[in-house]
Amino acid sequence: MDDGKLAGLVTQAANYGLFDRLKTLRGLWRDIAQSLGGAPKIDPELPADDAALLRNQVRECLQGRGGEVSARARAATLGRSYLELNAVGRRNFLKMVADEFGPDTGQVDKAMADVAKASGPAERHAAERSLREALESPRQRLLTQFNALPEGVKFLVDMRAELLPLSKGDPAMQAFEADLKELLSAWFDVGFLELQRITWRSPALILEKIMAYEAVHAIQGWSDLKNRLDSDRRLYAFFHPRMPDEPLIFVEVALVRGIAGNIHDLLDEHAPVEDPKKADTAIFYSINNAQKGLVGISFGNFLIKRVVDSLLHEFPNLKTFSTLSPIPGFRTWLNRRLAEGEDAILEPAELRALAALPAKGEGAPQGFAQLLDSRWVDDGATAQALRTPLIRLCAHYLLEKRSGTSRALDPVAHFHLTNGARMERLNWLADTSDKGVAQSAGMMINYLYKLSEIEANHEAYRGQGKIVTSAAVRALGKG
Amino acid sequence: MDDGKLAGLVTQAANYGLFDRLKTLRGLWRDIAQSLGGAPKIDPELPADDAALLRNQVRECLQGRGGEVSARARAATLGRSYLELNAVGRRNFLKMVADEFGPDTGQVDKAMADVAKASGPAERHAAERSLREALESPRQRLLTQFNALPEGVKFLVDMRAELLPLSKGDPAMQAFEADLKELLSAWFDVGFLELQRITWRSPALILEKIMAYEAVHAIQGWSDLKNRLDSDRRLYAFFHPRMPDEPLIFVEVALVRGIAGNIHDLLDEHAPVEDPKKADTAIFYSINNAQKGLVGISFGNFLIKRVVDSLLHEFPNLKTFSTLSPIPGFRTWLNRRLAEGEDAILEPAELRALAALPAKGEGAPQGFAQLLDSRWVDDGATAQALRTPLIRLCAHYLLEKRSGTSRALDPVAHFHLTNGARMERLNWLADTSDKGVAQSAGMMINYLYKLSEIEANHEAYRGQGKIVTSAAVRALGKG
Amino acid sequence: MDDGKLAGLVTQAANYGLFDRLKTLRGLWRDIAQSLGGAPKIDPELPADDAALLRNQVRECLQGRGGEVSARARAATLGRSYLELNAVGRRNFLKMVADEFGPDTGQVDKAMADVAKASGPAERHAAERSLREALESPRQRLLTQFNALPEGVKFLVDMRAELLPLSKGDPAMQAFEADLKELLSAWFDVGFLELQRITWRSPALILEKIMAYEAVHAIQGWSDLKNRLDSDRRLYAFFHPRMPDEPLIFVEVALVRGIAGNIHDLLDEHAPVEDPKKADTAIFYSINNAQKGLVGISFGNFLIKRVVDSLLHEFPNLKTFSTLSPIPGFRTWLNRRLAEGEDAILEPAELRALAALPAKGEGAPQGFAQLLDSRWVDDGATAQALRTPLIRLCAHYLLEKRSGTSRALDPVAHFHLTNGARMERLNWLADTSDKGVAQSAGMMINYLYKLSEIEANHEAYRGQGKIVTSAAVRALGKG
Amino acid sequence: MDDGKLAGLVTQAANYGLFDRLKTLRGLWRDIAQSLGGAPKIDPELPADDAALLRNQVRECLQGRGGEVSARARAATLGRSYLELNAVGRRNFLKMVADEFGPDTGQVDKAMADVAKASGPAERHAAERSLREALESPRQRLLTQFNALPEGVKFLVDMRAELLPLSKGDPAMQAFEADLKELLSAWFDVGFLELQRITWRSPALILEKIMAYEAVHAIQGWSDLKNRLDSDRRLYAFFHPRMPDEPLIFVEVALVRGIAGNIHDLLDEHAPVEDPKKADTAIFYSINNAQKGLVGISFGNFLIKRVVDSLLHEFPNLKTFSTLSPIPGFRTWLNRRLAEGEDAILEPAELRALAALPAKGEGAPQGFAQLLDSRWVDDGATAQALRTPLIRLCAHYLLEKRSGTSRALDPVAHFHLTNGARMERLNWLADTSDKGVAQSAGMMINYLYKLSEIEANHEAYRGQGKIVTSAAVRALGKG
């Protein structure tokens, strides 16, 4: 990866939280590190000489001289140095840790030999334990020290967010990343997470982050957010006790009558507020993972179950729990299919309907592929002509598996099927925003969580790769 | 270990918390487990047939059918079964888990072979990771599932308390215990702990546990406790977010003028309350580990540092931080020394002083050894005759190392020396309770935490085994 | 009232709270008062010279020199002086305030004249307002200043507790007391009260006060209290935001099946804990006003309604809400009736049954009156013979009115009838404690709160003095 | 007042809070009122027939049938009816209450007669008390009932805000308003207020109100607000326990080095954040009363003292406490002075300087008066020419008294002088916003709170009307 790309990555990562946090951390950690005297001045690109300085800091952290309080000061010093590095410097530093602070090969080999020659279970047990210890890398102890720092857990989460793209294709970096993931997995065990309802009474600090982290249906500002927190809406988030200001994952819910099929209706700030006690349906219309550094450490499943429990407790009249979800991979898949030629993928009647559309003048989009890239949703006749083929193809897409696996191709489908939901209803012109058209051809899908079927659906999907659908969706997919 | 002893162990463990918890857990977990139907009725001694039932439950937990919510229900079912077992049944169950749910030997061997034949660092990294995974035992996954249960972490902590005595001399049980310790160590990392001040405003629920867990100077009742929480006293405890009702470790502090040398003065409920703002010295007069199941997972060091910070913030006038500590191993050590003969361990002048004591009548204790076992502290003349030899011998004891190590023989001394304290002053007739006389010959010692020397002391002790003392204690030890 | 009695009163008032509070207030207010220099040393009996000093302090408080912060310091100084007085000194001080700091007679007369000669409504309105202001006494402004002090509201509440017995027969003191009551009534308006559930998680500080303030069925210690807070019990208290550590009134509730008729069953610490979800009945078995200084400022009615709401929310299965109450005036009333002669108040059959009791030996109690003063509840035969007449007479008593009023004679009956309850069931041998026998001849009564009838009952009692009873109680009262 | 104006008043009052509250109250109170059956449909203008309905509702509230819970339901019904009225209807309703539910004239007359003929102090005391009771109007009891409703206190505060403008020139309405003020004064006694620091962690609900209520230097949006809550800023507000979502008064503070003389520097979102620990000066740059309905119930004085205490506790290095305040009445006063002719109020040198300004072309402002109404602050030369006369005249204005009183003419000056501050420094071009130019000719003034002088200043101003100033301001005022 060249340095230009790297710079981009860091810029990208410099979202809301990171910037503010940098400022805060510098202050907090300076005080803690103070007892050790001033930190050395380091070039942000971390050339070899400065890398040697940091290597030394890492070693001092690992030696653990002077008790745990000193250890904390040293970790703070190292952390501050890291925060001052730019993208190139950070890659250099992470690479150094990956290459130099992994498990000791000699010790591992010796421990393996001891296991191999162990006579009897007693010796074997002891030798296996030594082997496990030998496989624990020094950098794991290093990382653990950051937990004792204020905001230290968030620091590690963000470090993993930076490490993940850098580790592609680099086994040493991957091993480092795996160490970090193991640590975070233990700490972020679902038992430690706290479900909180977010309301207009929540701290502005938290609400500001919800706005920054919402990536499915971007929040336009404070009044949009306030609307999503009104009395007929709910927003729940998981928090961790060591990152109390950072939502980990959150879900937005609308309390309505009947399954909602249009996202614009739900987000309309001017729509009247309904009495939530009269609602029979809860629509999960946006689920967001807020922390890139926790990718692969899953709690979405638990979130939905906990939210369903909480909603049922507050509104015993709720009968139906459903999502209103994007189909993010559809157009990408469809574009690939278009390579087969329009004749190959469209039915004769569909082709005829398209051909019958009146000409729009020079340069106007024509033909299936071109139309798809236009704002066709704004033109009634075109939309009408596209409706049948798009719905049919989308149903096909949704039932498709990722090549060579028993896993649904669409990532959102995979998430909800794993949780035990079923594909319930495909909604036409459900999200006509530019993003909605570009990703999902304006369609959205309801995944239905029927409490009595969740376990069976989950098993069927996990075990035999069965994609559970309603009869309606199944019929479309056969079309 | 025979079954009689086992029964005793469980009775012993059935302290306050456990009994109440059993009641609570049964209720809480019944509701969670309910979805799975009734649990099978199991004989508390867990004969082979019933063991097979539980083996099955463990396997179902590990298969993870039906998503995480079902997993939670299964863990609750298994946990409830465990809670119904008696001491024999629990040993049988733990033994089964130790023997049958450790790492898979075949997988480990294969993974080791892969590491051995790895060509190049990339392959080696990947193979090492696989080896680590192979070494992770199924029972670790099992234990992790309990974290998602209410009170589940406390359940595991208590299980370790039961496992520890059973694992002596049994490598499989030791390996199991090591797995559990590893898990708890990650969760109880010092970064997760919260320091709380305990006051008369604290929940009665917590105060009741403080009373039950205080083992150094037993609390006689609510009014004794209230006295220890008065305005010139402080009590701090560490808590964990997943065990909010359970203190992990706590320390009791008296704010006084000058270093205190007598525990009875500090505990006297009728002593006048002093103005804490005028105090120049904080005396740590009792430090208690409250959770047997967290033995070996240390946070005492951090506690003292955090408490010193907190006290300094509230009372900037404090100049001196010192303990008033028992010397629990002295009499045991002295008893062993007595085997050498009184002439060998006492100075001529000391022998003469003892001989000069007037006779007390038939059957009254005579001679050094006999006197030591009597209530000599109540008799002025005897105490006077014993003073010189006991202080001298005690100073010798305190400076002694555990055989073959560089570690102080006395466990309390080892704890404070590791933390960077120094031995400051030996106090005669400082604890004349029966326990104080029986363990420490009525003496207590101050360990001084001088902030500017802590790190150096810690290093000197840890590195070279140097026991740092005041000149006065050193002089006594040379006598 | 002579000084001996006075001293007694203060001793009596020196209950738990007052003593601790004195200590606290002295400290808190010293700091606030400090800016004014040391307070003058005052003789606790407040002789004339010292009274002049305090008179001056009161005047300075009223002049309000130097802004509100200075006013606060002066109030603190005055408050501290008051706290140092003994019973005689306090009476002297209160008398001085009563006599010298009431409304200005001249101003009142002038304002009345202005009202009288007002021409037209506009002048009348203005003159009436001036009259109201003239009637506001300086001491009211004085008392108000204490609100700005920490614990100042509690100080005034306690001052009223001291003032009440002293004001009997003294119109000036009564006027002072009325001023204080008016102030407290505004502050303790029911809208400001907060209902809190008291549990074993409540601060020990609060629990200790609950124990001190429980006067109906004394709490024997912490384990008795813990039992009353178990999962099948509830304890609710009202608090005021300016007295957060002081319960104002509290009620103890047992969740049971069917209406309970025996207090010992409810208080038995060894009785098994029932599943509260299966309860169909809530028994209010103890209601206590905790603050003597709030006598006549009623919130008991609101408490019961709020507790019923809270219970119904938590336990929708509850069908019946009832008290189990003492009949505190019965024996006093019966003793008066006994003057009529046993023949006059007992039925022939009852007399015969008593006569038929076997003789118990010399000096043993004999006859109705004598037996009543003995521990007859412990003797089966005697109790049997007393049962019919006592129940009959008690029912008569309960239906009796206070002479010349439409108000029930029994004060507890009056309280619950005013709230809209009805007399439901008389319980024989329901409270056989010494106090229960001495006051209520061992009987207790259930007052039933039937939600659909409360308003009608309340109106019938308040309007026409109708005592609503069940058919059973009515029948007994006719006997 | 004609109905058009009335409608305007209500529209004006329909600020943020009111609108949201209406929605909320309707819901909350509907549930409470439900037990009484549906409220009658009432014409929002409240014609005579409908007024009769409400008159009846008021009477029912006062009769208090059915206990306090029913009373609450009736108050809720009445409150809901009121909320549905428009401006005309509300005036009609308030007028009815003012005219018909005041004190009973007959009872007052009788009670006055009893006072007049009282013989001896005992009778007099009793009679005065009866007179006080007779003077208490039924509507006071009515108003008190609203305290028991959720949001009921805020309802009364807002009702007073509506009543105040309507009561001008109407003695009956004034008497009603005085009743309401008396009630609110008791409830909003400074002892009940809670100081809270507002931060970016505060609920968005509160922050939104701060933005709506800030009237001195309007907050432009969330990022402006966030800037005012940064680490070198503080915002404190007083709250009342019965209106926890409503700030009563709040103050904004900047922590700086030296006394600030320019408001734009303080409000600049792009200015660097300073380390507050290095600040030596706290600038109170905005103080806002948030509740129109609490006009005349003062707590500003206490707020400043409490904030100073809080700041000193957090930042012991602070040496200086000063405001940066507008001079809101200056231009109005100056406009009146201009009637005397420019020659009369300007010095010859000042006139010459103005005359020397180069001509700006046709229609451009000329002469002192015309220039003052222009954006002269943007033109260096003009501003220079205006500087001397404006500063001189402003100092004159600041030292002027309200006609016939010893009170400073400028309301902000009066507020701070009453609190014991002194006029410290006049700042040229300190607020060049349109509002700043229009009100204060772009100037601002620092009122200095010197802790050691506050009490003396307060007394000097309150007693002898002395306006305390620095030598510099005094010199300007003499010019």
TrEMBL record, chains A, B, C, D:
Domain Malonyl-CoA decarboxylase N-terminal, first and last residues per copy: 101-188
Coiled coil: none
GO biological process annotation, one example: fatty acid biosynthetic process
Short name of one Pfam family: MCD_N
InterPro entries for this protein: Malonyl_CoA_deC, Malonyl_CoA_deC_C, Malonyl_CoA_deC_C_sf, MCD_N, MCD_N_sf
A molecular function GO annotation: malonyl-CoA decarboxylase activity
Annotated ranges, domain Malonyl-CoA decarboxylase C-terminal: 191-450
PANTHER family xref list: MALONYL-COA DECARBOXYLASE, MITOCHONDRIAL, PTHR28641
Name of the protein: Malonyl-CoA decarboxylase
